[in-house]
Amino acid sequence: MFTATDLDNKQTFKHKIKNIVKKTAPFIKQLTVIILTILCLLPLNACTAATATNSAKSDTIYQQRTVHNPDGTGKFYMGREIARVMGYEGAGWLERPSRGMEEKSARLVNNLDLKPTDIVADIGAGTGYFSFRIAALVPEGKVFAVDVQPEMLKFIELNKQEKNITNVEPILGSLDNPNLPENSVDLVVMVDAYHEFAYPREMMQGIVKALKPGGRAVSIEYRGENPLIPIKGLHKMTQKQVKKEMAAVGLVWKETKDMLPQQHLMVFEKQSQV
After folding, report:
1. Helix (H) or strand (E) holding 219
2. Do 122 and 171 have their domain in common?
3. Both 113 and 249 in a single domain?
4. Would you say residue 73 lies in a domain?
5. Do both 94 and 29 map to the same domain?
6. Residues 258 and 123 placed together within one structural domain of the fold
7. 200-210 vs 239-247: helix axis angle to the nearest 10?
8. Whether 119 contacts 107, CB under 8 Å
9. Do residues 128 and 44 share a domain?
10. In angstroms, what is the C-alpha Rg of the chain?
11. Is residue 1 a part of any domain in this protein?
12. pLDDT 10s digits, 220-239
């Protein structure tokens, strides 16, 4: 049997509960809003997680080292340190009068097996030294002169106007993308440029996409096998290394032409299923 005191205590307890509920109601509402906000942000968090995954994937492709060659970036790809880019200040060296004789530039261009209708991309075109020489051999085609330095593209535009050449198109690429249309190019030429790509895997994937099925990618690099060639080590590449890096993006080696004094001319092909 409840006494009067017990009933008073029970009513007092109920009153206290009502007061607690009344006082905490605003906090419960705020907590509900916070929970709903978190739920709404879950897709954003998923995107952030995906970005982190991509970043981690990139970290597995490239390694950054504090101790490295002073001519390099400290960034390594497939065991090779990426070389520093020659800036637009070196444009004069690219256009030096002795280059044709030293590198046999005409011989190089004539061994690209060009057709008059070919669409060619000159990646790392610089001043357009090779772009304009190739353009003369593809009168019904076009040359995309791709470079990541706007200053270099200005040189190309000036040369284009001065020489009245209409089938050379300057294109500003990015560090990881040549910015070329998909399946648009018959031949990609990289003359002493690939070893400086900041993101070689991504850049080559973009190049492969731009190549037509059966299209060719030609890498011209100073011979890394020969220590007597007077070029800094990171600005040379061995055939073995080039083949390994091209295979990583699905390109198939077809042949190496050793008719140049100091460079390999290596030809790779995009397979139909790539």
Report:
1. strand 211-223
2. yes
3. yes
4. no
5. no
6. yes
7. 70
8. no
9. no
10. 31
11. yes
12. 999 999 999 999 999 999 99
Model confidence over 123-146: pLDDT tens digits?
999 999 999 999 999 999 999 999
Instruction: Find, among 52, 77, 82, the residue nearest to 248 by Cα.
Output: 77
The rounded distance, in Å, linking the Cα atoms of 212 and 207 is: 10
Q: CA-CA distance, 272 to 274, in Å (whole number)?
A: 6
Rounded Cα–Cα distance for residues 80 and 76 (Å):
5
Residue 74: inside a domain:
no
Q: Which residues pair with 37 in a beta bridge?
A: none
pLDDT tens digits, 33-71: 454 444 444 443 443 444 444 444 556 899 999 999 999
Query: Token digits for 64?
Result: 């950054």
Secondary structure class of 229 (helix, strand, coil): coil
Q: Which helix (H) or strand (E) holds 35?
A: helix 4-61
On whether both 126 and 206 belong to a single domain, the answer is yes
Query: pTM for the whole thing?
Result: 0.77
Dist. CA 40–CA 26, nearest whole Å: 21
Instruction: List the structure tokens of 19.
Output: 């007061």
Describe the strand order of the beta sheet including 72-77 as a list of residue ranges.
Answer: 62-64, 72-77, 80-83
Give the integer Cα–Cα distance in Å for 39 and 45: 10
C-alpha to C-alpha distance for 267 and 216, rounded to whole angstroms:
7
Read out DSSP for 121-151?
A: EEET-TTTHHHHHHHTT-TTSEEEEEES-HH
